[in-house]
Amino acid sequence: MAMTLITTNTSSDAATSDFTTGIDSTYKLYIFKFININPATTGQDFGFQVNVAGESDYNEVITSTSFSAWYGEAGSGPSLAYDTAKDQAQGTGFQDLNSVQSSDADSGMAGTLWLFNPSNTTYVKHFYAVTTSFTLDATPNHNNYYIAGYVNVTGAIDEIQFKYSSGNFDGIISMYGVG
Amino acid sequence: MGIPTLISTSTASDSSSIDITSGIDSTYDEYMFVFTDIGPATDTAHFAFQANAVGESDFDEYITSTYFYAYHAEDDGENSLTYNTNSDQAQGTAYQHLADYIGNGADESAAGVLHFFSPSSTTYVKHFYSRFNMYNANAQTADRYAAGYINTTSAIDEISFKMSSGNFDGVIQMYGIS
After folding, report:
1. Is B134 close to A179, i.e. CB distance below 8 A?
2. Does residue A149 lie within any of the structural domains?
3. What are the Cα distances from residue A92, in Å, to A70, A95, B35?
4. Considering the domain boundaries, does residue A13 fall inside one?
5. Is A83 within the bounds of a domain?
6. Do A116 and B142 touch (CB under 8 A)?
7. Nearest chain B Cα distance for residue A74, angstroms
């Protein structure tokens, strides 16, 4: 076995991108690739949540870290810092993977999320991600986020959902299995 | 990332170390190790690796490395992004930390990926980098980054993983990237 493409979701003005099949004990590592993720509403955060097998709703308990590097097109910044606005401490919210993304026609987000052994029923479920975004604060800037943490459950995870904090989005999310 | 080919899977079950002594050669320019469910028997143990050059004995090559991390407590009491001078090396021969202070609770573990480049080169030092997430011994999530080089121009053909103290469980998969 190697790295196998399991599913590709292409979103076009969609509220969410859900992966409800294909996450099981087949692979030890699942990798999600984000390509040209662009929100309809400016200033929104792209994030994910998961669901444990047999339960309903995307609302599992997450503890996470977040730090980012950013630099503005007009020379503002740069900065490398921990971001307390994007981490969670036993929270059940969607885990942000970026921040205040622009909805400009040529903007977008790309990145990768690694999810480790979601089917194990002994340990918490570790994940980490790296994303690069075109962000709109006072002026356009680039934002490079490093997110990591664990879903604090021992139940198997078999579903994952991606969405923005508000509004619909376009983009491609591909799920791969490694192992 | 190129296409990974699974070379071997090693399963630790209350093991003192996992030594991978075959399959590392000139076939691939990059080797990727995927770690899942790495659980130590001893609380606050550090998961680490060392390498052995062809024809030599012992896992004790010279390493110069960097190590930094972000962490955040479940009670929201602490967070930080910090360089860690306790887990880097300056021409050291110790096992290089990949994830330090892992908790040994029933649901506590570490997971991550180590990339190891061109081990069969006899011209250059051998570069590596890793990223792990872990549940540490203080009920915190920790995002660990290690990187560096093994300061030898000899080919590397063996790698060893172990805890700083005690045994461990877990699965280590070695891939060649083409």
Report:
1. no
2. yes
3. 27, 8, 26
4. no
5. yes
6. no
7. 26
